[in-house]
Amino acid sequence: MDLADALDRAPTGERPRFDLAAGALVGGRCADCGATAWPARAVCHRCGGADVRLGTFARAGTLVSCTLVMVPRPGLEAPYMLGQVRLDDGPVVFGQIIGLDDAEAVPCPVTVQVSADRYWFTPAGLQEPTGERQDETRVSSDETGG
Amino acid sequence: MAEDVVVAGVGMHPFGRHSGRSLKDLARVAGLRALLDAGIGPQGVQMVYSSNAMAGMLQGQEMVRGQTVLREIGIEGVPVVNVENACAGGSTAFAQAVMAIRSGAADVVLAIGFEKMFVADRSRTLDALESAADLDVVAGLGIQFTAVYGMRLRARLADGSIARQDLADVAVKSHANGVRNPYAQHRVQVTAAQVLESRAIADPLTLLMCSSICDGAAAVVLARGGALPQPGRPTVRVLASASTSGFTLDPAGGPSGATLCAQRAYEQAGAGPGDVDVAEVHDAMAPAELLYAEQLGFCPPGDGARFFRSGATALDGRLPINPSGGLASRGHPVGATGLAQLAELTWQLRGEAGERQVHRPRIALAQNSGGWLEGESAAVNVHLLERTQRWT
Ligand SMILES: [Zn+2]
After folding, report:
1. Under an 8 A CB cutoff, do A96 and B199 touch?
2. Please, where in chain B does CATH 3.40.47.10 lie?
3. Cβ neighbours for B336, distance < 8 A, ≥ 6 positions apart
4. Among B13, B186, B282, B332, which one carries the catalytic annotation?
5. B333-372 pLDDT, tens per residue?
6. Per-residue confidence of chain A (146 residues) as pLDDT tens digits?
7. A49 and A69 belong to one structural domain
8. Is A94 in contact with B203 (Cβ distance < 8 A)?
9. Among B87, B210, B214, B261, which one carries the catalytic annotation?
10. Peptide bond into B255 cis (omega under 30)
11. CATH architecture under which domain B5-122+213-224 falls
12. How remote is the CA of residue B250 from the centroid of ligand 1, in Å?
């Protein structure tokens, strides 16, 4: 695959980020070197190749570290928990952690949860949550200067 | 090194809350002090790199920020390049000035940074800070810089290599240095108990460990060696200048941007971390100093807390870190911070740092990081400065 193929990649706003059926994140995986990124990019960050294919990542990952944030942000009541997660077959991603009572247990296994426009993580084995998420904040592509 | 570049003059406007002062006022004081220190007037400046991060969102001056403040001090009709690299903008302007002189494009270049973060609505300042990340990816997650550092430190508390007491003790040291710095925002001595009892921000960080909203400006005049002779004053030259942008984290791990820049800088200088006598590091949260001591090679990985406990990084230690009080105490007006670090190190190398002077430093290191790309800083610059004359 040629670098020029990246010229025709779907606009970022049209690339899927979530697989609702699988309940997992969809990102890019380089067919040449295997590097992953979420969300998918047009060109591989590791080898510079353009054969980046969309793929569904594992739901399972490891919560590497987390923090309980005490300062609210628009659409987010404090406290809320943020964490760094290494997906089992994917990239390192950051997101909200819901339902983790014992932060001292970190590192620990977690499971990704997705809805139409967002994702979060719950401790592995915890009962599937019913979407008790608080935030609805999301910027349009216009606001990001894209 | 192809060509010597020297720091000919430095200047700052005190950091803090300056409600009655505009960006022009802040930049005027820092800029004029740097010119006076270099012994030149505005017409001696051949080129300018101007750093500001937030005036677009906070003051509405989205464009030509440098030109608008520079004409207040008589600098116009020269190339002005506006630089934005989040919290690393100041050192980016400095790095560009070094390159301009090395390239032969100019002999005397001003690098200036200015920021005014206190505005009527504090949430706008937080919004502007949040934009130091890829909003297309992280908007709405509630990522704040305090949370980023909180996550980095939590992992180290979990593995036992850093204790909560260390986090507090570093903040105590920062404040103790800030007390001695007339340019510092927070000039109040605190105790470890006060630090730990202050308001929780993002576990394990508390209020007194964190840099806060700040106004200020800093400026540096750089010159080709010999272009601005200053007889009778020690010469400070630029030994190394290394920069990188952020990169996607490798799930298997790997060196940080700060480590990569430091390695390149040591290589350029033909020196190593053991040669550094004083350092200013990017402690947007005071305990980050422990992490950067490791990443810059001052101590082995995992030993940051032990290194700190040994007293090595105190003002009278063998490698004082953040004698200015660092970002946490001196203050962190985003676009000015990198240049404030370099101004501080210049004063230290000349022996002009007053009550916070460290013992006869010869080589100084500045590390300035900005923004966040899901794990790694979006921009990092490491500079090494050297005093060329012996101490007598
Ligand atoms: Zn690749």
Report:
1. no
2. 5-122+213-224, 132-210+235-387
3. B15, B30, B51, B90, B113, B114, B115, B216, B217, B218
4. B332
5. 999 999 999 999 999 999 999 999 999 999 999 999 999 9
6. 699 999 999 999 999 999 999 999 999 999 999 999 999 999 999 999 999 999 999 999 999 999 999 999 888 999 999 999 999 999 999 999 999 988 888 999 999 999 998 999 999 987 655 544 443 333 232 322 22
7. no
8. no
9. B87
10. no
11. 3-Layer(aba) Sandwich (3.40)
12. 12
Its ipTM equals 0.93
The DSSP element (H or E) to which A60 belongs, if any, is strand A60-69
Residue B20: CB partners within 8 Å, gap ≥ 6? Answer: none
pTM reported for the whole predicted model: 0.95
Look-up of token digits 């700060």 = B258
Tokens standing for B163? 């204790």
Residue B184: other Cβ atoms inside 10 A? 26
What is the nearest CA distance from A94 to chain B, expressed in angstroms? Answer: 7
d(CA B332, CA B54): 13
Residue with structure tokens 């001052």?
Answer: B298
Q: What is the dihedral of CA B329, B332, B333, B338, to 10 degrees?
A: 120
- CA dist B154 and B111 (Å) reads 36
Note down the domain range covering A71.
Answer: 60-123
Q: Using CA coordinates, name the residue in chain B closest to A37.
A: B248
Backbone angles phi, psi at A71, to 5 degrees: -105, 120
DSSP state of B151: H
* Total number of domains in chain A: 2
